[in-house]
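[job 0412] stage=fold_complex status=start
inputs:
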Amino acid sequence: MSELTTLQKWLTSIIVRPGMLDDKIRLADEHYQLKNDKVIRPSLRLSSKQKIEIYSKGYILRLLECMEAEYPALNKLLGQNLFHTFVKAYLVQLPPNSPDLYNLGEAFPAFLKGSQPQTNNLDIDRPMYDLPVDLAMFERCIAEVSRIEGLENKVEEVGDNQMPYLFNTTAIYTSPCLKLLNLQFPLVDFVQHVYNELEPETPVKQDSFVCICRKNYRVNFHELETWQWHFLNSLQNKPNYMAAVMDTASVCSIATDTIMADLILWVPVAISLGYVYLK
Amino acid sequence: MDTIDTNRLGLPNLGLGVGLRSKHYSHLMQNDPVVDWFEIISENYMNNFGYGRHVLSHIASIRPVVMHGVSMSVGSTDPLNVDYLKQLKQLADFVNPVWISDHLCWTGVANINTHDLLPLPLTVESMHHVASRVNQIQDILQRPLILENPSTYLEFESSTLHEWEFLSELVNKTGCGLLLDVNNVFVSGFNHGFDPEFYIRNIPHKSVVQIHVAGPTDCDTYLLDTHDQPVPTQVWRLYQLAQELTGGVSTLLEWDANIPEYPELVAEVQKAKEVLKGHLPNVPVSRTSAVDVISNPVDHQMQATYE
Ligand SMILES: [Fe+2]
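[job 0412] stage=fold_complex status=done
writing structure:
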C-alpha cells in the first residue's frame, strides 16, 4: 500500500468509526501501524488529536443535518436525541458511499425496520416500533418524488372541461413520479403539520393508502380510497386500463361496473393532481 | 508582455456572482437575479429532475453558470469514479457552464464518501497522484479543471511542500486553473500559522479563474469555514490583494448556512465593488463558543418542495 493510501485509510477509519476519539485513534494507529502525533503536525494551540477531532466531529454533525432535512417529521416524532441515535447507528452500519447526498438517506427506512425488536403483532408496544418505519418510508418517498423524472416537460395541460379519456382509456398512464404506499398509520396530516410548523398529533394505527406525486414541480400527497389506490397500483403494473379495472374489482371485491362508473368521476381528479396522464 | 487573453486560461471575468440555493428558488423565478452570474453545486443537480433543475434551466438561460463540485475527490487513492464524471459531463451538456471546478482534496477512500473536503499530505507522491488524475479528468471533461484551495484544520508531518507551491506545480504539470478561496487562505493561514498574503502573492496569478469570498467562524483555537456569516474585513483585504495581482477575476460569495434573504445576499457580494475602490467594510470575524458549528455545511442541498 502506498503511503498516501495508508494515510487516507487511517484518517477515514477514524472519521467514520463510532466511539470515543482516543479509542478511535488508538485503534487506527494500531491497525495501520502509525502514530497520530507523528502523522499530524501539532501546533501551539491544538494537539494532533484535537485537529483530527475537528474532522470527526464535523463529519457526524454535517450528516445529521442532512438527515434532519430529509426526515423532519421523523425527527419531530422521535425527538432529536433519539433521531440522532438512530442516524448515528445507521451511518456506522452504512457509511455514505455516494457522491450524491440525495442517496444518503435512501436505506434509512430499511435500516429502521431492521433495527426493530422482534415482537409479535399483538405486542402493545408494536405501534411504537412500526410508526417510525412508516414515517421514514413516507418521507423518503417525498424526497424521491421531488427529484425523479416527472411529466413537466412531457405532457400538455388538458383543459378542465375536456374528457378525452371517456373515449380512449387506452391512452391513460400513471405518472413516472407517482409513488403509492400502503401504510399502517394515516400519516398525511402528521407530515403536513410538521411541514407547516404546526404541532402534529401522533397518529393511531389504521390501514392507510397514500399516494405521493409531483405536478408542475410541486409535490403533493393524499390519502386515497382503497379502490383508488388499488387502481393506480394496478395501472402501474398492468398492461392497460381495462386490465387495471378488472384487477381492482377483484382485489377490492367490487363490481367492475361500479369501478368503471366511479372512475369516470375520479379520473379527471387524478389527472389534475398529476397521478395519471393521457399519452 | 502578457495580454489579457493569457490570463484566466482565456476564461472571462464574469463579475460578481452568488451560489444558486434552493432557499432563493421562488424569488429567482419571479425577480431579476441582479448579480452577474451563478455558481451551482454540481452534485445537487446531477440526478435531479425536479424543481431545482427547472430553476437551473431558467437561470442558465439568463445568466452565465459555473459548475462547482464537492465529490470529485481528486486526491483520493480510490480509482477515479468514472460514472460520476460521466454524470458530471451530462450535466455540463445541459448547463453549458463557463467552467467546472472542484477542490484540491479527497472526500474518502475505500468507497466511503465522508462529504467533507479532506486535506492531502503535500508531498511529491501526492503531486504525481493528483496531477495524473487531473489530466485524466480534463480528458474526460474535455476542458480545464478549475481547482479550489480548501480550508484545512490539520497538516501532515510528511508534507514537504507549502500549499501555494503544490498548487503552482500542479498548474505547471496539468494546465488546470485555480479557484482561489481567499477565505480558505485566511482560515488555513490562521490554523497553520502561515501568512495569507504571502500565500496569495506566491500562486500563479494568471491561472486564477475565480475567487471565493465567505465568512468563517472563530472557534477560539481555530477558524472554521462555516459560510454562514458576512465576509470579515480580513477576508476582504485578501480579496483586494488577489484582484490586484490577478488583474480581476470572477468573484463569488459563498453562503451555505443561515442563508439570508436574496436581497441581503446580493448586497453582501456587492460590497466587493467598494472594496476594489479601497473602501473595506469594517466587519469582525464572527466568534462562537458553541460546540456544534459545522464547516462545509451541505444540508442546504437537501431541501424538497412540497405543498
Ligand atoms: Fe470556497
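[job 0412] summary: The pocket of fe (ii) ion is lined by residues B 148, 181, 184, 212, 254 (CB under 6 Å).
[job 0412] exit 0
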